[in-house]
Amino acid sequence: MGEIAVAQFAPGTDKDANLAVLRRLAEEAAGRGARVVVAPEYAMYTAPAMDRRFVETAEPLDGPYATALRETAARLRIHLVAGLNEQRDGSTVHNTLLAADPDGGVAAVYRKQHLYDAFGFTESAVVHPGPVGEFGTFEADGLVFGMQTCYDLRFPEVTRRLVDAGSDVVLVPAAWVPGTLKEDHFVTLLRARAIENTVYVAAADQCAPVGVGNSMVVDPMGVVLASLGEQTGTARATATRERLAGVREVNPALALRRFTVTER
Predict the structure, then answer these.
(1) CA atoms of 82 and 65, how far apart (whole Å)
(2) Does the pLDDT at position 161 exceed 80?
(3) Could you confirm whether 41 is annotated as catalytic?
């Protein structure tokens, strides 16, 4: 059984302030019994436009922000997942998710594979895609958690590969930008990824001004177990192996499929 919380807030250009909010939300979620807490994409630093500021403020995975995440996870005895702009080569960064574990170590790392070059944005101007072979999975309370990031959600192969790697719960930190039908797309795709893969999906989005909010936890039948609208806060839900097994008995889609995912 896994107690999962999504933490929703609006990171800005003040890294210390962003960290303070994340710590407060992690404490709130842990106080309510959460064992895995998921924060948004770019939780460390977010600017209104994808530009050189993301490169200039980037940090390595042993830098101050990642260290603070690990310390917070250890203090609260939780797994804590959050996004950061990771130093790379001085001209580009990785859009990275770090999962810190209850012992203060690194449980998993995932670097966003599908960059947001759509709807008028060009994330690839400053971000280098992560390697296709990187899964970003970790185990907590008897469940396997897999990570993907925001725009990855529009590519069903990403979630399917995580499920093939053993994931029971898919975590989706996001900064889902507002736009025509974008909020509807976010909710629809989250539920679709849960239903078609018979897994739990937990999405932590930024709220305004960058994101649309609507962070949520969805069960393997597509039922929204917990959600947030537009406000800063946390929402918690329970994931169980019994529910996974029950859904997969009724809907054995994974066992019945006739195709696998291959790299392009």
Answers:
(1) 10
(2) yes
(3) yes
Identify the active-site residue in 3, 15, 86, 112: 112
List the structure tokens of 183: 């909020």
Q: Which entry of 41, 59, 86, 123 is annotated as an active-site residue?
A: 41
The torsion angle over the Cα atoms of residues 111, 112, 113 and 117, rounded to 10 degrees, is -150
pLDDT at 264: 77
How sure is the predictor about 92, in pLDDT bands with cuts at 50, 70 and 90?
very high
- Prediction pTM value: 0.97
With a CB cutoff of 8 Å and minimum separation 6, the contacts of 30 are 37, 76, 77, 78
Tell me, what's the pLDDT at 156?
97
Burial 59-75 (b: 16+ CB within 10 A, else e): bebeeebbebbbebbbe
The residue annotated as part of the active site, out of 3, 15, 59, 150, is 150
Q: Cα separation of 80 and 9, whole Å?
A: 15
Q: Is 207 a catalytic residue?
A: no
For the record, the structure tokens of 106 come out as: 């690194």
Nearby residues of 14 by Cβ (< 8 Å), 6 or more positions away: none
Distance CA 71, CA 60 (A): 16
Contact predicate 119/179, CB 8 Å:
yes
Q: What is the side-by-side order of every strand in the sheet holding 143-147?
A: 137-140, 143-147, 169-174, 200-205, 216-218, 224-227
